[in-house]
Structure formats: C-alpha cells, structure tokens
Amino acid sequence: MAGHHESWCRYFEEAAAAMKIRSTTDQDFDVFVDTLHAAFGRLPETPNKDGGGVWWSAFEMDRNLLAMTADGRPVGTAGAYSFELTLPGETLVPTTGVTAVGVLPSHRRQGVLSAMMQRQLAQLRARGEFLSVLLASEATIYGRFGYGPATYTQRLTVPRHRAALALPRARGTAEAPATGSDTGTIEVLRRAECGEILEEVYDRYRRAQPGALSRPHRWWASGAGQPPISSAPRYVAVHRDSDGTPDGYASYSAGEPDYTLTVDETIAADDAVFTDLARFVLEHDLVTQVVFKHFPPGHPLRWQFADFRAGEVSGDTDWLWVRLLDIPRALTTRGWFMDGELVLDVEDPFLGEHGRYLLTVRDSKADCGPTDREPDLSLDVSDLGSIYLGGTAPSTLVRAGHIRAHRPGAATLADALFRAERSPHCLHWF
C-alpha cells in the first residue's frame, strides 16, 4: 500500500509540474464556462439579460477550480456547490456538491482530472467538511476517487388505459393510513405563477427525506437547473391540505405526437398527497401514457394500481454518489435506529489512507474512533459512501465481492445497523 501511495504522489507531482490548478474568481466566469463546454463538445446556451436561465447560473466562482497549462491555457474545470444534505434521522449537514468536472479532449489521460480531484478534496477538508456528493456522468470515473453510489432513481411509464387505482384494502388503519386524502385540493397553475410555492414545498420535503439536497434560493431565482427549477414552461398541480396550505406538487407537460404526459418530479408531504397527485396526472384527458421521470425505487404506487403490471419501470440508475472525508465524524452525525457494534477496516487508496474504527451505537447515538480490535468488515471508502445513507445494503456489497465480512453475522448486523428510517432519494440535479 505504501508503494502504491508513493507512486500516486509522484504521479501528482509530475502532473502538477506540467500545470497550475488555481481557484477561480468572478472574473474567470466566462473562461470557466467556455472551457467546461469545450470539454464536453457542447456550445453554451444564451443566458437571459440578467445572466440567468441557464443551468450554470448558480456557479459559486469562489469554490471552483481551473487547471492551466504552464503557458496559461485553461484545460480543465472542477466546480463545487454549497448544499445541505439530509442524513438518516432527519439530520441536516452542510455538504459540497461536486460539479462541472471536465478536461479538454487534448489533455485527457495526462493526470489533469486526478490532480484537480486531489486539490478539491484537500480544500474540502480545509473547510472542515466531512463528506461531498456528486452526480456521475459516467459510472466508471468517480469510484477511484472514493465516491460510491448511494441513492437510486428510475422512470415509471403507465399507459393511460391501465392507470386505474384500486381501492385500498386497509384504508385508514394505524398500520396502513389512508392512501388518498379526503380533504385535500389540487389547483393547476403555470410554472411562472407558483415559484414561491415550489420553493417552500420542496424545502419542507427535503428536510425529512434522507438523501435529499437543499435547493438554495439563488437556484430558483436564477432558473438554474432542470424543470421545475428552470423557467421552462410547465403546468404545476399544486396540492393543498384542508387548511389551504400547499403540501405537494407535480410539475408536468404533455406533448405531441404521442400525447405523453411527462412528470418532471412529484413532491409530497406524505404518501396520501403523492397518491392524490399521481391520480390527478394519471386521469388526465387526451394523453396515451404518463411518465414519471424521477420515481423512487420501492415506492408503493405500483401496488396501488388495479393492474399490478400497469407500471413499467425503466432507466433504473444511480443518482447521488457520496464520499466520506472524516469517517468518525460522518458516522457519529447521522441517525441510527438500533444498537450494535461494528469494527470497520477502511482503505482510502486515492488519499493513501487507512483506518480501523470501532462504531458503537447506543440509544440512537453513535460513537466512533480508532481501534486495534479485529475487524468485522473490510471495505473501501467508496463502499462506505454507498452504504452511508442506508440505500445500499452492506450484504449486497459482500455478495458482490467488494466488502469482506470477517465473521458470520457481520453483514447481517451491518444491514440492520445502517438502514435508514426510509429509503434515501435525491431529486436534485446539479
């Protein structure tokens, strides 16, 4: 391991000698945007007169990096957003959303990306941050930098003629609350009419949803991102409770020639509100099918169809990737829902680090620190990122050959210990 780390150090030293990686300022905005688009072979869209209306409107230029050649030419970019992440136990923590990572085709496979990632992780630690997150454009890139897939999403397509919902068999019981509200109402608005409502409803939702990220006001104000954050024309079904308070919405559009109604996202305070919104879009006239673009795996809606096969799942994919930078702090910050002890032996090849930690949970509180006890599980830091939010069972990674269980029952205990109160899900695109 030491030799491997030394080779990495030499690699970064050689890469750094051939380039300069520096933080950006507001004066670098155009250079940063142009370099990023060139890295992906795309031409920038035209922002509105205020500089908004494009996905990069919310860049934080004091947190971005530019890689420059020795003669001053920009060849790589790496960005960072400031978010809050909801951990199991409804704990809100600051996190960095890594974004806008690109290297010009002329300079790929020359150590530019690795050098930028090394610099960025060092900066995050200097800021006192203990984890970072990203959305991976390619699933083969970020594992080597210590990131692991931690939340998942999928599409659900429902033909209109098969979309009827069945009556719930356990309606209103303590174990199975009513799956449709009797007192809520739905109002159809245009996107331009309800920006504040969307912002408020989403913010309440994300505070209770493990894996969810905040959407800072500047994102909504500048229209940065995908609908419904962007100002792209959409209809919005706004759900209100019996007091008239908005508690959910579905952003959607219907288009020709196939008359598909596409739901960008459905945000709901609870399952009953989600069912009301789903019923609304599923009963829409003059559409042939409804597509939920960002559907949570394991959601009960599929069980609510009169025809169990009505919903076709596709596009099942990873979404949020997690990287831990301070393992004891990360493990003691999230919520826990059962008592237990595990010794975790964690390798971090990219940073050349190794640690063995005793995780002890008592009365929903965790203590974590170095230990010389024999390990229960041996794993890569990317595997720890995958299981951290409770969306990936440790036993799955044991069966895949990524995590090593050193004693019988260790994986089963880890599954129970790392579970969240509900499946983590992230809707935010960045």
Fold blueprint:
Layout (H helix, E strand, L loop, with lengths): L1 H16 L1 E5 L5 H11 L25 E5 L4 E14 L3 E13 L8 H15 L4 E5 L12 E2 L2 E8 L25 E6 L4 H14 L8 H6 L12 E6 L5 E10 L4 E9 L2 H12 L6 E7 L5 H4 L7 E7 L1 E5 L2 H7 L6 E9 L4 E10 L2 E6 L6 E4 H8 L5 H6 L4 E2 L4 H9 L12
Parallel strand pairs: 4-5, 11-12, 15-18
Antiparallel strand pairs: 1-2, 2-3, 3-4, 5-14, 6-14, 7-12, 7-13, 8-9, 9-10, 10-11, 15-16, 16-17, 18-19
Can you describe what's shown?
The protein has 11 helices and 19 strands. By secondary structure, the protein is of the alpha+beta class. It folds into 3 domains: 2-129, 3-Layer(aba) Sandwich (Aminopeptidase), CATH 3.40.630; 154-314, Gcn5-related N-acetyltransferase (GNAT) (Aminopeptidase, 3-Layer(aba) Sandwich); 327-418, 2-Layer Sandwich (Nonspecific Lipid-transfer Protein, Chain A). 42% of the residues are buried.
Entry keywords:
seven-stranded mixed sheet, 3 domains, 19 strands, 430 residues, Nonspecific Lipid-transfer Protein, Chain A, single chain, 31% strand, alpha+beta, Aminopeptidase
Major beta sheet, strand line-up:
1-2-3-4-5-14-6
Count of DSSP E strands? 19
What is the name of the CATH architecture of the largest domain? Answer: 3-Layer(aba) Sandwich
Q: Which structural class do you get from the secondary structure elements?
A: alpha+beta
**Largest beta-sheet details:** 7 strands, mixed
Unreliably modeled segments:
none
Strand portion: 25-35%
How many domain modules? 3
Helix content: 25-40%
Order of helices and strands: HEHEEEHEEEEHHEEEHEHEEHEEEEHHEH
CATH superfamily of the largest domain: Gcn5-related N-acetyltransferase (GNAT)
- Could you say which overall geometry the principal axes of the C-alpha atoms support? globular
Number of helices: 11
Radius of gyration: 23 Å
